[in-house]
Amino acid sequence: MRLVDVPNHEFMESPSSWLTRLALRQVVSPRELASYLDLSIRVDCEMALARTSFEELANRIAEAPGSFRMVDAVMQRLRKIDPNGDRFLLRRRSVAYHRYCAACLATDRVKYFRLEWRFKCWRWCPIHVCLLQERCPHCSKEVMLPGDMYCAGPDGLGIATLDRCLHCAELLTTGWQTYVGSLEEDDLTTPREQALTSNGRSVLAALLCGRLRMKGVPKIYSFKQLKNIELLGYLPHVNFQLTHEELHRRKKGESHAHVGTGVQKKKLSALNVIHRQNITSDA
Ligand SMILES: [Zn+2]
Ligand SMILES: [Zn+2]
After folding, report:
1. Which has fewest Cβ within 10 Å: 7, 109, 175, 283?
2. What ranges do the domains of the chain cover?
3. For the complex shown, is ipTM > 0.90?
4. Do 6 and 22 form a contact (C-beta atoms < 8 A)?
5. CA of 180 to the centre of ligand 1 (A)
């Protein structure tokens, strides 16, 4: 059962990203690899592993270093508030996908997809202060992992690294420098959007450490409160229209979005989850 040439698990790498890279090293498809590992990954690889243990699976294969335990902690808590991942995880027509930060992928030594990029609520990158990309800038397809890197691309010649699109093989990171810092201008986003993106970022920290606090309330709550916070609409899940394209329209004064008012911010940030742990800066 032990495998050779197993890639290290990068910090908070999603299971589907790691299995995609592992399958390439073994020169098999992710589906063949999953079958060998007795793992059902058809609908959602992250949820499939949340039902068992990512760490236990990794230990069965090899002694590759990684943050498997932290991924398990997040996913097993998520299962308690969202057993199938329908409410919190990104899917399109029942297929799991990731958003991504083009600047992170462009500057990574090892190109990989983070677990937080699977979450509907994780809209922006706190390192590069920009919105995440929804899809490939060349073919407009979402990044659906695990994918077969060995046969990827329009001609089936494959891709070597995950900063390339599995469909068109072009770089997912094209133009990444123009995105860096694009959210720094407060007057381009509404207070409601600012509060929702901040809340969204806090969800991962709450799932990782198991507790959360509300602004202005001394009490510490269980992470299970996230379920109510989501139901109340305080996460950027539905009817959240802020995208790169929309931000660009606002910059050029072509959008009718009502930015710069402070009406709703108070209410939403009162429910803002306080960051207990910054999972993106602990690498
Ligand atoms: Zn980034
Ligand atoms: Zn593409």
Report:
1. 109
2. 15-179, 188-270
3. yes
4. yes
5. 8
Distance between CA atoms of residues 164 and 18, nearest Å: 15
Instruction: Classify residue 150 by its DSSP letter.
Output: G
Q: Which ligand is closest in space to the CA of residue 169?
A: 2
Ligand 2 center to residue 134 CA distance, Å? 12
Q: How confident is the model over 241-252, as a mean pLDDT?
A: 86
In the chain, the N- to C-terminal Cα span, in Å, equals 30
Q: Is 50 a residue whose pLDDT tops 60?
A: yes
Model confidence pLDDT, tens digit, residues 203-221:
999 999 999 887 777 788 8
Instruction: Establish whether the linkage from the previous residue to 146 is cis, with ω within 30° of 0.
Output: yes
The number of the ligand nearest the C-alpha atom of 163 reads: 2
Q: Say how far apart CA 43 and CA 198 lie, in whole Å.
A: 29
**How many whole angstroms from 166 Cα to the centroid of ligand 2?**
7
The Å distance, Cα 133 to ligand 1 centre, comes to 10
Compute, in angstroms, the gap from residue 91 CA to the centroid of ligand 1: 21
Distance CA(83)–CA(197), nearest Å, equals: 24
